[in-house]
Write a structure and sequence with these properties.
Distance between the termini of chain B: 36 Å
Strand content of chain A: over 45%
Helix content of chain A: under 10%
Largest sheet of chain A: 6 strands, mixed
Radius of gyration of chain A: 14 Å
Oligomer: heterodimer
Radius of gyration of chain B: 13 Å
Structural class of chain A: mainly beta
């Protein structure tokens, strides 16, 4: 049972436009969400996170939105740059016991076209 | 300050051979994790440790063993490698439970089992 779903395996966006990456979750016990970025042959790197008590968190060109009622979050990148081309993983942490674990989605490969 | 390092970077094994993957961190983080990444599968947790001398099973622990004899090192062992264990293995670390949610990843070990 996949608790964190990234339904789009890939996404292509023109340079300068907005990239929107989506993530859905099924476990209502998740209370903290993170986005990781991964380049080929490298480890994932932390990008941005959001607590379930918030609905938006912004860091420069990156904004994460959380809709708890819909169990949906999205990552917006504005403006998109060629260097943003990577695989993006959504991850969620469950509150209480097991809070040291993260559950990852399968990732979305973003290609930013110059 | 190297962060999280993994040894080796790449290895080819024959079925039935054994090996140990080493993860080392210099960030004094309490928690350490081993993940595997397979195409289309995202990151799946194999084993983790919440402190020196402790280990616990993750989502896909079968065929692997781990040890955390020193706080800075987390070893992942394959006693009898199988082709299904062909994967990219990532180590990650995290501060203690109340100190931060972000996991920091190493560069990965690519393992091919023939």
């Amino acid at each position: 049972d996949q608790q964190v779903k990234q339904n789009s395996p890939s996404l292509s966006v023109q340079e300068g436009r907005i990239s929107i990456l989506n993530c859905d979750y099924t476990n209502s016990m998740f209370d903290y969400f993170l986005w990781y970025k991964k380049y080929p042959a490298e480890g994932p790197t932390f990008l941005i996170s959001i607590s379930s008590i918030k609905d938006k968190n912004e860091d420069g060109r990156f904004t994460v939105f959380l809709n708890k009622s819909a169990k949906h979050l999205s990552l917006h990148i504005v403006p998109s740059q060629p260097g943003d081309s990577a695989v993006y993983f959504c991850a969620a942490r469950r509150s209480g016991a097991g809070s040291y674990q993260l559950t990852f989605g399968k990732g979305t490969k973003l290609s930013v076209i110059p | 300050n190297a962060g999280v390092t993994q040894t080796p970077k790449f290895r080819v094994l024959k079925t039935g051979q054994s090996m140990t993957l080493l993860c080392a961190q210099d960030m004094n983080h309490e928690y350490m994790y081993w993940y595997r990444q397979d195409p289309g599968m995202g990151l799946r947790l194999i084993h983790y440790s919440v402190g020196e001398g402790t280990t616990a099973k993750g989502e896909v622990p079968d065929g692997y063993n781990v040890s955390r004899l020193k706080k800075q090192n987390f070893l992942l062992g394959l006693e009898s490698a199988a082709p299904s264990q062909t994967s990219v293995y990532f180590c990650a670390t995290r501060q203690g439970s109340a100190l931060g949610e972000t996991q920091y990843f190493g560069p990965g070990t690519r393992l091919l089992v023939l």
